[in-house]
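Exam prep: given the inputs below (a chain plus iron/sulfur cluster), describe the expected output before reading on.
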Amino acid sequence: MKRREFLKTTVLATAAVATGPFPARANPEKPTIRQYRKLGKTEIKMSDISFGTGKLPSPSMVLRAIDRGVNYFDTAPDYGSSEKYIGGAMKRIQRDKIYIASKFCTPPSYPSHLPPGSRKKDYIQAVEGSLSRLKTDYLDVCFVHAIGEMSKDRDAERKRLLDPEMLAAVEELKKAGKMRYLAISSHGPDNMEDLLLDAVRSDHYDVIMMAFNFMKFPRAPEVFKEADQRGVGVVAMKTLAGAKDMSLEFKGAPFAPAAFKWVLNHPEVDGLVITIKSVGDLDLFLRASGEAPSAADRRVLDQYAARYGKLYCRTGCSSCESACPAGVPVATALRYQMYFRDYGMEKRAMQSYAALNRDAERCLSCEAPNCTRSCPYGLPVQALLRAAHDDLSFAV
Ligand code: SF4
Ligand code: SF4
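Solution:
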């Protein structure tokens, strides 16, 4: 029996008995994964479209995705109930047929990355916590998450990625068989490419996950080339450039699969992780698996760029922030608004915004919006920040 057939049979047979509402047979008309790619020099062969569980609705979604061939699940302790839901599906999963990536974070709300100064035991406890919630005894991948988010100072973040306490914990966890590969992720906003290059060159990391999409990432080739040369796997995220219009299509080419095909058309990218919230997402997103971009795909991306290019705060950019005398974290506030408006993660976005040291309240009365003048992409930054504050603050 081939791997896919085995997986499908195992999951469906057990799911049907244990949970009732699952379909007795997978619908052959539904899109499935058609391509698996080796993740750098790891032993992982990941589905090209993989599951970001930032808004995982239930354990059953995990099983449905596995049935369609998705085999890589990106989770984190601070993604709400994500780890618990995967754990809830675990007894119906053949563990060695899927890959689980989690992060050195603590529950429950995002962002709760382990801060600088954390001790070896903190890193070990974080992984133990994940294993317990996931109901498994090992992680395939564990991430130092969101490098470039905790400090504007490259050296400070560099210390986080090379922290001897973290590396000692990793060594112990690997020896104990509790994690297989060390990884690092970044969506900026500061020094994204430089920090990822630092990680790749350190030889401590097996995988990087980087924000990457069709809306201009000029230094991505530099990072990809170095990762490729050193056998470091590359996973892409934030591939929908803000996900501002999921209904956009051109001559039957829907926007989301076109954006994924564009990303996966880069041979150094081993796979992408996308937040999947429903069966509808699965149906739409998996249409991109194993497919090269068509002329219609390129046109729909052009249309998106024309409509939303002046509304989408570029992931990995923080160019305007130095122009703000009040130190408003423009990129982070606008990213949280993206989670709120475009990703459907309202609660998480509001909690994350509330945890910021400085928010965009001061933009309401700012009379010298230097940020707007400084954005090279022409975004009406002050207006966007005012709207973000309105969306994200708990004040009534
Ligand atoms: S509007 Fe003013 S306070 Fe707000 S980010 Fe721009 S410069 Fe800073
Ligand atoms: S508003 Fe413009 S300059 Fe500021 S972070 Fe976003 S894309 Fe960059």
